[in-house]
């Protein structure tokens, strides 16, 4: 279909008309729950009829500047926003306080000026985040083979888990290592020195770290098995040592008793000899048949008693009186 010269002229005129002025691409802002954020506004307009701020498609606040000393006219659409909304008088940038998760979304501002055929428009995107809680770590399936612990550690957050990045720091190896991601695979043996693992979580407004995890504590099942084995061997060794001590003690005691008995069997009896007193009991005497009885001026004989051990064979004794002890009299030889 051919286009007439009049239509071409109309299209050219429409293209020459000024459209809505814009400051550029959408600005991305972040805020923290309970905090505040400022939507910056930059323009070079001298005369402004009105400034209107929007959240999604809802009007938040309308400002009508005055050229006199009177205050500007400010209209807040919703009463619950009166304490949360404020603006900077110099350039009318908006400040939003007491942020909540529901404040995340698209914001925009329109500036109407007599020098513009269309309003000046600036767009914003706001994301409100929670401060991260302390990350926690869960232990995956653990394999213990030949003193080697193989498992996975998983880092997670109980709250504030939007746009969170995880990383790990491993301390204890020849060089400290880092790992990105919420899951950390580990392999550790008892021959290695203890290692520590720390999970770090970050979002656009905050960061937090987990408690330190020790490899030895994490793989205590391996250490427990080896410790129980060592404990068993130590217990057995102690039992053997106690038995050896008991046997040695019993052997020494038996040897001592045997030595004492042997000494009793081989020890000769020494007769108890004493000279006669003024009055002495009557004893049977044995005189030496080969010697004559000494006269009165001869040396008095010694009287001796002998106790015969039970294990020694009794010598042939002479008949004695049943009421008198068996005694022997030996002459003292000078």
From TrEMBL:
Residues 135-215 form the Ig-like domain. Its main location: membrane. Residues 1-23 form the signal peptide. Keywords: Glycoprotein, Membrane, Signal, Transmembrane, Transmembrane helix. GO terms for cellular component: external side of plasma membrane. SUPFAM superfamilies: Immunoglobulin. It is found in: Membrane. This is SLAM family member 7. It comes from Myotis myotis (Greater mouse-eared bat).
């Amino acid at each position: 279909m051919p286009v007439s010269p009049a239509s071409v002229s109309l299209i050219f005129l429409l293209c020459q008309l000024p459209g809505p002025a814009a400051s550029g691409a959408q600005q991305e802002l972040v805020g923290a729950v309970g905090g505040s954020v400022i939507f910056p506004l930059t323009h070079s307009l001298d005369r402004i009829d009105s400034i209107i701020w929007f959240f999604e498609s809802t009007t938040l606040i309308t400002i009508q500047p005055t050229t006199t000393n009177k205050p500007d006219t400010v209209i807040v659409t919703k009463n619950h926003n009166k304490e949360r909304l404020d603006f900077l008088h110099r350039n009318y940038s908006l400040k939003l306080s007491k942020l909540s998760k529901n404040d995340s979304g698209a914001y925009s501002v329109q500036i109407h000026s007599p020098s513009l055929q269309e309003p000046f428009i600036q767009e914003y995107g706001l994301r409100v985040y929670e401060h991260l809680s302390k990350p926690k770590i869960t232990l995956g399936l653990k394999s213990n083979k030949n003193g080697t612990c193989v498992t996975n550690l998983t880092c997670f957050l109980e709250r504030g888990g939007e746009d969170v990045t995880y990383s790990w720091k491993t301390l204890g190896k020849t060089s400290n290592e880092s790992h990105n991601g919420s899951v950390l695979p580990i392999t550790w043996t008892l021959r290695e020195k203890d290692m520590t693992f720390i999970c770090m979580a970050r979002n656009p407004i905050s960061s937090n770290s987990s408690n330190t995890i020790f490899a030895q504590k994490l793989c205590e099942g391996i250490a427990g098995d080896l410790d129980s084995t060592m404990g068993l061997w130590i217990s057995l060794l102690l039992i053997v040592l106690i038995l050896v001590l008991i046997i040695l003690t019993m052997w020494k005691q038996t040897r001592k008793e045997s030595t004492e008995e042997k000494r009793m069997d081989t020890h000769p009896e020494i007769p108890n000899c004493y000279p006669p007193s003024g009055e002495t009991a009557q004893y049977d005497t044995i005189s030496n048949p080969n010697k004559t009885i000494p006269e009165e001026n001869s040396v008095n004989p010694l009287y001796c008693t002998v106790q015969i051990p039970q294990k020694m064979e009794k010598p042939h004794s002479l008949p004695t009186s049943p009421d008198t002890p068996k005694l022997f009299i030996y002459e003292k030889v000078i």
